[in-house]
Amino acid sequence: MVLTAHKTVARLMRYVHTDDDAMRHVAEWVASRRQLVVATCQEPNEVAP
After folding, report:
1. 48 versus 20: which is more confidently predicted?
2. What is the pLDDT of residues 3-28, one digit of tens each?
3. Cα–Cα distance between 17 and 12 in angstroms, integer?
4. Which pLDDT score, from 0 to 100, does residue 47 have?
5. Cα dihedral sign for 18, 24, 27, 29?
6. Alpha helices of 1-49 — where are they, by DSSP H?
7. Using CA atoms, how far apart are residues 36 and 41, in angstroms rounded to an integer?
8. Is 41:47 a contact under the CB 8 Å cutoff?
9. Per-residue pLDDT at 16
10. Cβ atoms of residues 15 and 9 within 8 Å
11. Which pLDDT value is given to residue 32?
12. Buried b vs exposed e over 18-42: b needs ≥16 C-beta within 10 Å?
């Protein structure tokens, strides 16, 4: 408890994410969004001398 500066376990547990389904959903969303961004990213055109 000293490391987090919380006086009670109840207060500490407010910040602990125990819902794996919610975290998995967000991780999948971020991964799909990243794939979309990477797939639509184009290499810059070369400038002719």
Report:
1. 20
2. 677 788 888 777 777 777 888 898 99
3. 11
4. 55
5. negative
6. 9-13, 20-40
7. 9
8. no
9. 75
10. no
11. 93
12. eeeeeeeeeeeeeeeeeeeeeeeee
Question: What is the average pLDDT across 20-42?
Answer: 86
Tokens of 8: 């009670």
* Residue (of 12, 13, 17, 16) closest to 1 by Cα position: 12
Residues 1, 9 contacting (CB under 8 angstroms)? yes
The residue with tokens 């990477």 is: 38
Calculated CA dihedral for residues 25, 6, 4, 19, nearest 10 degrees: -10
Residue 12 near residue 1, CB atoms below 8 Å: yes
Contacts of 19 (CB under 8 A, 6+ apart): none
